[in-house]
Q: What sequence folds into this?
């Protein structure tokens, strides 16, 4: 006599596997959302820093004045090459620049051929309240980055 056995999974084994999968999805999803938000914030800071550096470099290589323009209300900025970029809606931008060079609702940091600038500060704040303050020195045009602290 032969005994016939069927291979496969029991209903209990399948239910345990689904429960483990559901638990993993439930735990990892909030962490993934948090990580994605953090990535958007870091990308925004990196983009603005790169654009400021590019604008200063453009002024020095072209031998003429080049403006870095930022519109805090619409979270848009324009570097010396003319490209307009927009930051994510979860990010707040505040700017303090020289009134003489600003135009309309746009804050302007002007870079001169010798590397100096009109100076200014840009605060990039994540929706959680943490952020970074970017300062452009008026004398040397040097960009520094520090932790944002509300004024």
A:
């Amino acid at each position: 006599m032969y005994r016939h056995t069927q291979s496969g999974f029991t209903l209990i084994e399948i239910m345990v596997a689904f429960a483990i999968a559901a638990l993993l999805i439930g735990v990892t999803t909030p962490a993934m959302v948090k990580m994605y938000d953090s990535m958007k914030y870091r990308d925004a800071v990196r983009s603005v820093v790169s654009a400021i550096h590019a604008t200063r470099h453009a002024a020095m290589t072209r031998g003429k004045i080049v403006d870095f323009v930022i519109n805090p209300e619409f979270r848009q900025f324009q570097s010396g090459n003319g490209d307009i970029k927009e930051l994510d809606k979860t990010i707040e931008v505040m700017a303090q620049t020289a009134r003489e060079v600003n135009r309309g609702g746009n804050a302007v940091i002007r870079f001169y051929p010798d590397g100096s600038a009109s100076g200014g500060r840009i605060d990039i704040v994540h929706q959680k309240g943490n952020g970074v303050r970017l300062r452009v020195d008026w004398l040397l045009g040097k960009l520094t980055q520090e932790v944002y602290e509300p004024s």
Summary: The longest helix spans residues 11-62. DSSP finds one helix and eight strands in the chain. The helical segments are 11-62. The chain has one domain: 11-147.
